[in-house]
Amino acid sequence: MKDLKEQTLQGGVVKIVSQGANFFIRVSFLVILARLLDQKDFGLVGMVTAVTGVFSLFKDAGLSMITIQRSVITNEQISTLFWLNILVGALLTVLSLAIAPILVSLYHEPQLFGITVVLAMGFILNAAGVQHSAILQRNMRFGVLSILDILSQVGSAAVGIGLAMSGFGYWALVGSAIALPGITTIGVWLTAGWVPGAPRLGVGVGSMMQFGGLVTLNGLVVYVAYNLEKILLGRYWGAESLGIYGRAYQLINIPTDNINTASGSVALSALSKLQNEPDRLKNYFLKGYAVVLTITLPITVACVLFANEIIVTVLGAKWGEAVPIFQLLAPTILIFAMINPLTWLLFSIGLVARSMKIALVLAPLVITSYLIGLPYGPIGVALAFSSAMTLWLIPHIAWCIHGTMISLRDIVVTISRPLISAIVAGAMTFGIQFSIDGPLSPILRLILGMCILLSVYIWMIMFVMGKKAFYMDLLQSLRGRRYMA
Questions:
Q1: Who contacts 461 (Cβ-Cβ below 8 Å, separation ≥6)?
Q2: What 3-state class would DSSP assign to 439?
Q3: DSSP label at residue 277
Q4: Helix, strand, coil percentages in the chain from 3-state DSSP, rounded to 5
């Protein structure tokens, strides 16, 4: 078997490259649709997905996590998990169909019935591929998963753009959402080389279901905490306000989603293999944590400094109202980069119950912030949410690492160097940009600003903070010249 460090690093690079492609596809798709559709089109679909998204948390019932995390698992167990996934997908489809008229009554928008009915089909499509995808991830076949991810994103975007250009309005968003799990499931079936057998009793799935149930419940609580504001905005401020908030929220979360997806799947697989080797697990986790933060910090600073340029360039001038929302939400990019990896740590060492307890404390805090900001519209909600997450950050980190092999000092040391580098780079970029005479177009300001920001940041992190050896070692490990695992 290949050295675990080599597998992890290669898998990480493959996922980062694929998520870079994924980022480009998603942003391009958003750029095109933002110009072809109206704010209300996005708002209508957002009204449905804010609710059905809760059901999405049950789409694999935490059963994929079991396949990845367990040190030993049999074919009979995976087959039984597959059929459980199908059952859950069917139930979620029926439940979505049942709530369609309720959504129409809640929002007073008759179009929501058809949108909900079609989106419901996505649960069955997704359920059929959950275990195949988990098998590929367990075997660390990240290259295959990355190719499939890109192909599904391209196919989904093509469907959406085609429908939008043909004048189908919000159905372009619905068609794209359905195409994504359909293409993905076909792909994983063709590449995993596994055909499920008949479900069986007495193969040890009971304890697995308990683990999966905690994972799913944890995801449900977190989802409600992070998405209730969309339901509230849609109900009290209407589809257009939700459309504006939703595009800013989506755009600010693209970096978070891509980085978390790229690093999370690789990290969970690697850390799970080291759950009985605490010293190596600590070493792997802190290095991965450092890489995630190093990538995330300049993105966060860029979103704060160039909110107007990003919105105008990506969404277009008609989306100007999204600028202050985007800017207020920007700090959450960094916050999620600091707390999401801690979930991988907890899951890999089996502390799912602790993650659940943390979520149960976080949810009321965030929901309260929405209620405080709701009377002031989307801007008030964005400010309240961002403030609540900032206040929660340190308690969250301390609770997650308590009693583990990771200390608070480890976290502070890991964070400090990229954070100082980002602050210096942001300040210098702001000063240089402010001193430039003459008007520049938004896209030129964005390009110039990013060049300055990244140049200063890389110089700071590599030379001033002394991390050049760390990144050169990673590069050499990827080339197979040095193995330090």
A1: 294, 417, 418, 421, 467
A2: coil
A3: -
A4: 85, 0, 15
CA distance 162 to 156: 10
Give the CA angle between residues 104, 176, 41 to the nearest 5°.
Answer: 45
Q: Return the domain boundaries, the chain.
A: 4-478
**What are the backbone angles phi and psi of residue 371, rounded to the nearest 5°?**
-65, -35
Residue 232 DSSP SS3: helix
In degrees, rounded to 5, the angle at the alpha carbon of residue 103 between the alpha carbons of residues 97 and 107 is 160
Q: What distance in Å separates the CA atoms of residue 362 and residue 355, rounded to the nearest whole number?
A: 10
Q: How far is CA 95 from the centre of its chain?
A: 25
213 close to 57: Cβ distance less than 8 angstroms: no
Q: Which two three-digit tokens encode residue 349?
A: 């060492």
Question: Which 8-state DSSP code applies to residue 140?
Answer: T
Residue type, 120: A
CA pair distance 388, 248, nearest whole angstrom:
18
**Secondary structure of residue 60 in the 3-state scheme:** coil
CA atoms within 13 A on the CB side of 40: 6
Whole-number Å distance between alpha carbons of 396 and 291 = 20
CA atoms within 13 A on the CB side of 73: 22
Structure tokens at 308: 């107007």
Q: Is the distance from CB of 66 to CB of 208 less than 8 angstroms?
A: yes
Q: CA 392, CA 17: separation in Å to the nearest integer? A: 32
pLDDT 10s per residue in the chain (485 long)?
445 555 655 655 666 677 678 778 888 888 899 889 888 888 889 888 877 776 766 666 566 666 766 667 778 888 888 888 888 889 889 988 999 999 998 888 899 999 999 999 988 898 888 888 888 887 777 778 888 989 999 999 999 999 999 999 999 999 999 999 999 999 999 998 888 888 776 666 665 666 666 777 777 787 778 878 888 998 899 888 888 898 888 888 877 777 776 666 666 667 777 777 888 888 888 888 888 888 889 999 999 999 999 998 888 888 889 999 999 999 998 898 899 889 888 887 878 889 889 989 999 999 999 999 999 999 999 999 999 999 999 999 999 999 889 999 999 999 999 999 999 999 999 888 777 766 778 888 889 999 999 999 999 998 888 888 877 776 665 555 443 33
For 88, 123, 174, 272, the CA distances from 96, given in Å and listed in that order, are 12, 9, 14, 34
For residues 288 and 262, the answer to whether their CB atoms sit within 8 Å is: no
- Tokens read off for 171: 């159905």
CB-CB neighbours of 463 under 10 Å? 10
